[in-house]
TrEMBL record:
<dbReference type="InterPro" id="IPR036291">
    <property type="entry name" value="NAD(P)-bd_dom_sf"/>
</dbReference>
<comment type="similarity">
    <text>Belongs to the NAD(P)-dependent epimerase/dehydratase family.</text>
</comment>
<dbReference type="InterPro" id="IPR005886">
    <property type="entry name" value="UDP_G4E"/>
</dbReference>
<dbReference type="InterPro" id="IPR001509">
    <property type="entry name" value="Epimerase_deHydtase"/>
</dbReference>
<keyword id="KW-0299">Galactose metabolism</keyword>
<dbReference type="Pfam" id="PF01370">
    <property type="entry name" value="Epimerase"/>
</dbReference>
<comment type="subunit">
    <text>Homodimer.</text>
</comment>
<protein>
    <recommendedName>
        <fullName>UDP-glucose 4-epimerase</fullName>
        <ecNumber>5.1.3.2</ecNumber>
    </recommendedName>
</protein>
<keyword id="KW-0119">Carbohydrate metabolism</keyword>
<keyword id="KW-0520">NAD</keyword>
<keyword id="KW-0413">Isomerase</keyword>
<dbReference type="GO" id="GO:0003978">
    <property type="term" value="F:UDP-glucose 4-epimerase activity"/>
</dbReference>
<comment type="pathway">
    <text>Carbohydrate metabolism; galactose metabolism.</text>
</comment>
<feature type="domain" description="NAD-dependent epimerase/dehydratase">
    <location>
        <begin position="3"/>
        <end position="252"/>
    </location>
</feature>
Amino acid sequence: MAVLVCGGAGYIGSHMVDELLKKGEEPIVVDNLRTGHKKAVPAAVRFYQEDIRDSGAMDKIFTENDIEAVIHFAACSLVGESMEKPLLYLNNNVYGMQVLLETMVKHGVDKIVFSSSAATYGEPQSIPIRETDPTEPTNPYGESKLIMEKMMKWVCLKHGVRYVSLRYFNVAGASEDGHIGEDHKPESHLVPIILQVPLKKREAITIYGQDYPTEDGTCVRDYVHVADLADAHMKAINYLRAGGNSDIFNLGSGNGFSVKEMIDAARKATGEDIPVISGQRRSGDPARLVASSEKAEKVLKWKAKYTDMESIIKTAWKWHKNHPNGFCK
Ligand code: UFG
């Protein structure tokens, strides 16, 4: 039976497809290619260029394939963009989830692993953040992910579709062999932006604020390697297969690193000097976001293997150095 990967041509989705293939599973990908890349999906994998909001197309995919479970990455995911276009985020993310769940119920597919986010918490009340902490999103992106979690909760109750929601912190890195990696246009995440400096695509990295109440004044985040995330999704599928109850888990490495520490790690990983510019704070950035991943460790038996930033950045560097234009030639 197949595992449908919604958004399987995106950054995290494509690493998931890779992991499924390594584990001898049969992934099928649906992606509208708004931000995903066809080249990120191996030719041998059945691929549908469709939008998950298209119920006719989804119905056809579920009719043509023997789908056992769904892994759902297909969503808009930029915090800043969500503030500008809240209705786009509600339509694409929330309505997309509605059509997906309707199709799953119609076809009797009862397992879903969902790509959620630390953005569901908003400004943290305490560190490390636990799953039981309050969820007060400060942007439409985080709100849409929280609504999507709640949709799954009610659909589980009524229709028995069990779910695992994985709230990721800061995802980074690329596959060890360097054949797939991060390619967003425009890029907005710290690690690929830092690496644009040694790639000679920018002269320096701007640090957004050096007056935060942290050890070195720059924001602290919990960076988790994309391969560790894929491993967590695999464990979540197997947890549901074993009859596990619907649940929500944080995924992070449990360690916080500052922007300055990340730049230092990138200097070591690339062997290049990376000049910095001091910039203004970016609005909405909390000073510190670090996950407690204890629950995932206990229940899913998952633990991040990559905990050293230099090794995470090395994998990203291998990808970017060999693909300076991402998936474009
Ligand atoms: N940063 C810089 N310079 C840059 C880019 C980023 O200093 O050029 C800083 C940011 O201010 C922040 C840190 O690097 O302190 C990380 O920024 P990212 O944009 O890489 O990631 P965020 O922490 O903003 O976002 C992450 C996820 C989102 C999620 C959010 C939850 O990528 O999906 O955490 O708050 F919504």
